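On clarity, I found the account of how folds are encoded harder to follow than it need be. What matters is that the chain and its backbone geometry are given together, residue for residue. The format is easy to grasp once an entry is in front of the reader. For illustration, here is how one protein appears when written out as sequence plus structure tokens.
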Amino acid sequence: MESIKATGVIHVEFYTSGPFDEKISEKEKLMLYRIIQEQINNVLKHSGASNLVIELIMEERENSIELNITDDGNGFNPESPKNKKGLGLSNIMSRAGLFGGKVTILSAPGKGCTLRVQVPI
């Protein structure tokens, strides 16, 4: 996060809620880190975004973690076959799937993008 902020290319905000250190394993932390890293790379490469917001929320009552990464970039049609073939998004889906997670992409041309990852704990 700090290295991205230092470049001044994009404004980044990061919010967390919940006792992550106590509730999730090192493998789960690494998975979340890699997903965040991959999506930041996607945003920087493809979106033209000025702002990026990352939210990591532990839903203790639901025994789950929700990760939302939202940008104000170009957006895209997530249902388009060319967008489904991207290595970055397939890596994210594979990583989340290994932990029983679900990935949702909310985007449209000109509307930015929100990547939502929900993982049971």
In short: DSSP finds five helices and five strands in the chain. The first helix runs from residue 2 to 7. The longest strand covers residues 51-59.
